[in-house]
Structures are given as C-alpha cells and as structure tokens.
Amino acid sequence: MSIKLGIIGGGVMGEAILSRLIAQQVYRPDQVLVSDPQAQRREDLSQRYGVNVTSDNGVAAEAEDVLLLAIKPQVFKVVASDLVSKDDKNSPASENLPVVISILAGVSLRELEAVFEHQPVIRAMPNTPATVGAGITAIAPGKNVTANHLEQAKTLLGAVGEVVEVSESLMDAVTGLSGSGPAYVAVMIEALADGGVAAGLPRAIASKLALSTVLGTAQLLQDKQIHPAQLKDQVTSPGGTTIAGIAELERSGFRSALIEAVQAAYRRSQQLGK
Fold first, then answer.
1. Interatomic CA distance for residues 66 and 152, integer angstroms
2. What is the mean pLDDT of each run of 10 residues along the chain (274 residues)?
3. Sign of torsion over alpha carbons 20, 23, 27, 28
4. In terms of Cα–Cα distance, which of 47, 61, 77, 48 is closest to 6?
5. What is the rounded CA–CA span in Å between residue 30 and residue 50?
6. CATH number, span 179-272
7. Which of 97, 95, 96 is nearest to 115 (CA)?
8. Which three-class secondary structure state does DSSP give residue 61?
9. What is the pLDDT at residue 84?
10. Domains 5-166 and 179-272 alike in fold
11. Beta partners for 123?
12. Cβ-based burial of 64 (10 A; exposed 0-12, middle 13-18, buried ≥19)
C-alpha cells in the first residue's frame, strides 16, 4: 500500500479538504490514510470516501508526499510524539521527506519544526467556507520549504478555495480577518434579515433576500474587480434610500465595529499562540 497523503484528524476541516481532494482526483482513495481516535469517525470516513483509516498517528506520519495536521491545537503537544516517523527517515541525510502542512491555529512554525526537525513545514489558516470549496487559505512556509513544496501545498489547499502566501508574522491578522470573518458576515446577514422582518417582510423571504444580496454583492465585486467604495457610490443616489441607510450605519459605528472585531480577534489569536 503506497500512501501519498496522510491526514491526522478527521474532523470538519480535515474532511472538507479530504472530500475535495478525492472529488477532484488530486489523490485516489487508496493513496490516502486518515488517522482519527474515534472508531465511528474512522468507519464513516472509510465508507464515505473509500480511504484507508487508522488510529495510529505515527503510521499516517509516514506518508510519502504530504502530511496534513488537522487536529485541535490544544492536543498538539499530547500527540506530537506520534507524528514523528518511527524509522530514521527524519535524519538530515534523507532527501524525500514529506511536506508537513499544519492548519493548527496558534501553533507556530518554531513549535512544528521542533517536532519535524528536518522536514519542510508549512503553516496554513483556512476558513469555514472551505467546507463547500469556497474558502481562502493563507500559508506561511518554514525554513526547509522549497518552491516545489509550496506548489504541493497550493495544490492541496487549492482544492477548497483560493490560496495566498504570507509571512508567519501575519498569521494572527489572517485569523482575525478571514479565519473569524465568516462569523461576522453571518451576523451581518442575520441582522439584515431581522431588519427586513422589522420592515414587514416574512422571515423566510427576508432571510433569502439578505443571503442572496450578500452573495451577489461579493460575486459582483470579485467579477468586476472594483473597489467596494465604487460599488457603494454606484447604488447611492442623491437624497435616496441607500444614502439614508448608509448615514444610519455611520451613526451606529458599523464600519468601526467591524474594524474593531478584526483587531480583537487578532489580539486573541496572539494570546492563544503564547
């Protein structure tokens, strides 16, 4: 059995990446080994995707091409000893070591490289839209990473959305914006729907209008490659309804609240990483 991709952790994000990789035929099911401590979870993943499963993290760490770490960051230290290959292929003389891709929030490259001393390590921060293939992931390469390793990571993580490369010093800012951002957008959509209900719309219609408006606006900005302020100006006519609404948003500090939310999440991410 030739295992190309090892995944430690079969949770929501691990499965999201796995499902897209299999669907896009980046890896065949027989080339993937998923390690998870829960027997029921292993059985579910095996039946759903046809992949190999195990409870032995060390076996998954011996994958030939890529090792994806998708466990909870708080258990990293507990399982770290299992993530190192059982043989001597982590020696400096080895040339074909798999690239380690970690999506563990708050676990630094320094901590990861202390475990995988001679391996290329890439730290990544995906977000929840990755579960439907519409995510964006920021990656930060470690000291042993080559251009080929970066391409491997971009291919793997590109299966669940866009990929951008940043320095590790910016990963906490990424967490505050795109990592936590889906929650801010969800709150905004909920508030828009509540506003529609307050104005007399049935809940189901208000929710559909709010969701479609946000989705369509994001698609328009992306497709037309225009600045958000430009789109805002296009739909804001003198003395009209939109400018009245925007004036109220400004009075309520809507823009400042979002900025402060990103900064608060950024600071919390810094604290969790210490």
1. 8
2. 91 93 94 96 96 93 93 87 55 67 92 91 94 94 94 93 96 94 97 98 98 97 96 96 97 97 93 77
3. positive
4. 61
5. 7
6. 1.10.3730.10
7. 97
8. coil
9. 58
10. no
11. 102, 140
12. middle
* Residue type (1 letter), 107: V
Residue 88, pLDDT score: 43
Q: Does domain 5-166 have CATH number 3.40.50.720?
A: yes
Backbone angles phi, psi at 225, to 5 degrees: 55, 50
Tell me the two tokens of residue 182: 């889906």
- What gap in Å lies between CA 147 and CA 195, rounded to an integer? 49
Provide the residue ranges of all domains of the chain, joining segments of one domain with +.
Answer: 5-166, 179-272
- In this structure, are residues 127 and 106 in contact, taking their beta carbons and an 8 Å threshold? no
pLDDT at 227: 97
Q: How, if at all, do strands 32-35 and 161-165 pair? A: unpaired
Looking at residue 97, the DSSP 8-state letter turns out to be: P
Distance from C-alpha of 14 to C-alpha of 99, rounded to nearest angstrom? 16
Q: Are 101 and 68 a contacting pair, CB within 8 Å?
A: yes
What does the pLDDT read at residue 94? Answer: 44
Give the model's pLDDT for residue 90.
47
What are residue 227's phi and psi, to 5 degrees?
Answer: -70, 145
- What is the structure's pLDDT at 93? 39
Helix crossing, 181-198 with 203-224: angle to 10°? 130
> Which tokens belong to 185?
């957008």
The set of long-range contacts for 89-98, using a CB threshold of 8 Å and a minimum separation of 24, is: 89/62, 90/116, 90/117, 90/118, 90/119, 91/118, 92/118, 94/118, 96/64, 98/6, 98/63, 98/64, 98/65, 98/66, 98/67
| pLDDT, position 34 | 97
What type of residue is 30? D
